[in-house]
Write a structure and sequence with these properties.
With about 525 residues, this protein is of the alpha+beta class. The protein folds into four domains: about 5-105, Rossmann fold, CATH 3.40.50.20; about 130-200, ATP-grasp fold, A domain (Dna Ligase, domain 1), CATH 3.30.1490.20; about 210-445, 2-Layer Sandwich (D-amino Acid Aminotransferase, Chain A, domain 1), CATH 3.30.470; about 455-515, no CATH class. The protein is about 35% helix and about 25% strand. It starts with a strand and ends with a strand.
């Protein structure tokens, strides 16, 4: 039924959807802003439509421009990817009004789940465990807030109903701090989401962030694809995900999946989605929220469930096909890990880092996948999030997956912007991570980013490697130094290499890349 899909997104997720569409014989339409004019998702599409300047509010978030592009190119359907308009019920309704299939849940289900307060009420009615809290809190009734806080107990969270990405959340440990936290949470949510609704929730700590992937069709079938471990977070942002979770037993997995299926059926959910839970040390779990879209971390689920293509399944159920084998066993095969490769400097408090990609070399080998929009010569825009790519590995066991990921990270070279590759390497080496003894607050409370050693003899080799790999050296190179005068972007490129432990060795056939052991 679907012959041409407009992808209302950019970057690696647009490319991810395009790959599946090509395999299915479906044409794709790209939309792009001014800074994305030369992006890979534009080059790889069958059709491309310019939709405005760099800021997302003037391009990727303008519903009328997206619908107009779909009509102009004869698109049968729109895939929203994640972020931007992916969870916007008005966008869904605009697609339906224009006679275009939206590859995602219906607007009613999206609205029911989009607000965290309405979602909590819905899950409670469906018998899904929820975190103890208070749903109906207003800024003009501090007396009720104090009374409910005393009932819940401290510490607790003040959360925005429309929050996301860690915004609109405040931890409160004392009653005297409650009112200021309420004002701050409501104000942040009003600015970011135009909705100041807040609620109170018990602070479950230590807790793991566990989520279940589901796909639902229009015939009432819901299939769950097991759990993902998403507890490695900084400032409520996920950095590394795994499937399965080291803390989830087959019995807990069954209960998690049953709860996720009940959550989907409670609101007539359709298409792909993720039901998120908090889980304590005793295996008790509580509903957190539903992400009514495909998740950034969906590849780890694909890898441990036999190479299933969740995007293909999204397109199939949007076309009216039933979910295949909804009662399939919940037995993950092997272990998958995803590291989010962000443009940020882990040695400078993770400050954002963008700019020209001088050189990129992507890891390969069995069980290695790198989803990215990077290419040499790309000037990474400042208007969008910091995600440059996703490095995903699969292996037979968690221990082997960790070692494979470390190898793949060392093989990944991105010269230009700083990236968080050194952070991931340090994280994977940490004893707590290797044993699985961590929770959502572990990173901020127990992990310190190690600084590169001053005077390390490997540094000089890495400086040379950075320049050679980025094709910046115009003069002679020796084992003790390099011609650096007048080289553009020398400092940035060389430091990028140094922090990855990369060296260049002189061989009989010229320069070759090697990896310094750590």
């Amino acid at each position: 039924m679907i012959k041409r899909i407009l992808i209302a997104n950019r970057g690696e997720i647009a490319l991810r959807v395009q790959r599946t569409c090509r395999e299915l014989g479906i044409e794709t339409v790209a939309v792009y802003s001014d800074p994305d004019r030369n992006a890979l998702h534009v080059r790889n599409a069958d059709y491309a439509v310019h939709i405005g300047p760099g800021p997302a509010l003037e391009s990727y978030l303008v519903i009328d421009k997206i619908i107009a592009a779909a009509k102009a190119t004869g698109a049968d359907a729109i895939h929203p990817g994640y972020g931007f308009l992916s969870e916007n019920a008005e966008f869904v309704e605009a697609c339906v009004a224009a006679g275009i299939i939206f590859i995602g849940p219906p607007a009613d289900a999206m609205r029911a789940l989009g607000g965290k307060v309405s979602g909590r009420k819905l899950m409670e009615a469906a018998g899904v465990p929820i975190v103890p809290g208070a749903n109906d809190i207003t800024l003009d009734d501090f007396a009720t807030a104090h009374r409910e806080a005393a009932r819940i107990g401290f510490p607790l969270l003040v959360k925005a109903s429309a929050g996301g990405g860690g915004r609109g959340i405040r931890l409160v440990e004392r009653d005297e701090d409650l009112e200021n936290a309420m004002r701050a949470s409501a104000g942040e949510a009003a600015t970011s989401f135009k909705d100041a609704t807040i609620f109170l929730e018990k602070y479950v700590s230590p807790a793991r962030h566990i989520e279940v992937q589901i796909v639902a069709d229009r015939h009432g079938n819901v299939r769950a694809f097991g759990e993902r471990e998403c507890s490695i977070q900084r400032r409520n942002q996920k950095l590394l995900e795994e499937a399965p979770s080291i803390a989830v037993t087959p019995e807990i997995r069954k209960r998690l999946c049953d709860a996720a299926i009940a959550a989907a059926k409670s609101c007539g959910y359709q298409n792909a989605g993720t039901v998120e839970f908090l889980m304590d040390r005793d295996g008790n779990f509580y509903f957190l929220e539903v992400n009514a879209r495909l998740q950034v971390e969906h590849p780890v689920t694909e890898l441990v469930y036999g190479g299933v293509d969740l995007v293909a399944m999204q397109i199939a159920v949007a076309s009216g096909e039933p979910v295949p084998d909804p009662d399939a066993p919940l037995n993950p095969i092997g272990w998958a890990i995803e590291c989010r490769i962000n443009g940020e400097d882990p040695f400078n408090n993770f400050a954002p880092s963008v700019g020209l990609i001088d050189f990129i070399d992507v890891p390969a080998g069995p069980g290695v996948r790198f989803d990215t929009m990077l290419f040499e010569g790309l000037d990474v825009p400042v208007f969008y999030d910091s995600l440059l790519g996703k490095l995903i590995v699969w292996a037979e066991t968690r221990e082997r997956a960790v070692e494979r990921m470390k190898r793949a990270l060392r093989d990944l070279i991105i010269s230009g912007p700083q990236t968080n590759v050194p952070f991931h390497l340090a994280l994977l080496d940490h004893p707590d991570f290797q044993s699985g003894d961590f929770a959502t607050n572990w990173l901020e409370q127990h992990f310190t980013m190690p600084q590169p050693a001053e005077g390390d003899p490997r540094l000089e080799q890495a400086l040379i490697a950075g320049a050679v790999a980025a094709n910046l050296i115009g003069g002679a190179v020796s084992s003790t130094g390099a011609t650096a005068a007048g080289l553009p972007r020398w400092t940035q490129a060389s430091r990028s290499m140094a922090r990855r432990g990369i060296r260049i060795e002189e061989g009989t056939r010229g320069w070759r890349r090697g990896t310094v052991s750590r």
